[in-house]
Write a structure and sequence with these properties.
single chain, 132 residues, alpha+beta, Trna Endonuclease, Chain: A, domain 1, 5-stranded mixed sheet, 4 helices, 5 strands, 33% strand, globular
């Protein structure tokens, strides 16, 4: 009982697993959406010591770092991206560029794809910039 009262335990584990699966499904939908709009997926779930990027995609000279947000309603998903998360995404993008120096010549953008419970996706290009 003590673990459950502290926010840990079987119920918490099940909720985390469900949230993880929801996130993976949303990322797959977002990747399919991007592919359908002419983007090539360079990476999914890129992890660095300073943060994670859900999707790195390319189209022509564009290199796009994409954050995927899934919520029951698209408006709630849009409101869930915090300035702190934006800073971590920018830091992770800098780590990507350090690992992939040829990408430094690309036009870089930070996008968000919102995914609703009904599977609808909304792509917000240039949702924030590196000064976040």
């Amino acid at each position: 009982m003590k673990d459950e009262a502290a926010g840990r335990g079987p119920r918490r584990d099940l909720a985390r697993q469900a949230a993880f699966r929801t996130g993976l499904t949303a990322e797959s939908r977002a990747a399919a959406f991007l592919t359908g709009h002419g983007y090539a997926i360079a990476a999914r779930r890129f992890k660095s010591p300073v943060g994670e990027i859900d999707i790195v995609a390319r189209r022509g000279r564009e290199l796009v770092f994409v954050e995927v947000k899934a919520r029951a309603r698209l408006d709630d998903a849009a409101l869930s991206l915090t300035p702190r998360q934006q800073r971590r995404i920018v830091a992770a993008a800098e780590a990507w560029l350090a690992d992939h120096p040829d990408d430094g010549t690309c036009d870089i953008r930070f996008d968000v794809i919102l995914v609703g419970r009904d599977g609808r996706a909304r792509h917000i290009a240039a949702a924030f910039d590196a000064s976040a």
